[in-house]
Amino acid sequence: MKIPADLIGALTGPTASLTTDVASAVWEAALDENVLGKVPVVSVVLAVRQGAAAISDRLYAAKVARFLVGVESLSASERARVVDELAGTEAKRERLGELLLDKLDRADPLHKPKMLADLFVAVGRRKIPASDFDRLSDMVLSVFLGDLRDLAERGSIEDVTESRRFALQASGFLAWKVDAVYAGGGASLKWSITTDGSTILAHCPLGNS
Fold first, then answer.
1. Distance between CA atoms of 90 and 12, rounded to whole angstroms?
2. Within 13 Å, how many C-alpha atoms sit on residue 26's CB side?
3. Element (H or E) spanning 199, and its range?
């Protein structure tokens, strides 16, 4: 069973039900009923070892399901177009499936799969170019969600502590330049949200993730 190819097939195919194994795994992962009720979105097949999913299998299935639920707002033709734009060629579709599954594997089970789906949807709606998806999605995976939520909710970089600003800089969300140099030594920094950071904040509403 080729899971990456199955994922791409799910994204490019018509709306259908998830397999029994995946639905069961998602249920056992204790997803809330609102998410579970949306599970019949697009078809994907996940291998569940020996018919009894381990905890890691269930969490992984939950991440994939959250991503698929998140892209449900796009039509099948829009999802297929995004796949084509992200993959580049028909031959690279399975590689794209591997890339998406790797990103989902590295995501937390609750929040970041939805944020990755939000970026996928933004590509589908031509809000961001497909060439930016890989970079922006890796930024989402690398950032500490609490820092990103603080930045989004506080509305001012000045309200984010300096140590956390450097953490956000390391993830690509903030940048700084020297604002003033003091005669006795030292300098003050002027911080700003990067273009990529602003893009993610605009298209990945944290309140819904």
1. 12
2. 29
3. helix 195-203
Q: Which of 200, 178, 204 is nearest to 189 (CA)?
A: 178
Query: Which pTM does this prediction carry?
Result: 0.79
User: Residue 29's Cα: distance from chain center in Å?
Assistant: 19
Q: Residues for the chain: how many in total?
A: 209
| pLDDT exceeds cutoff 60 at 185 | yes
Q: Give the H or E element holding residue 102.
A: helix 93-106
Closest alpha carbon to 82 in 19, 127, 38: 127
CB 52 within 8 A of CB 120: no
Give yes or no for a contact between 93 and 62, defined as CB atoms under 8 angstroms apart: no
- Placement of tokens 């698929």 in the chain: 68
pLDDT for 9 equals 77
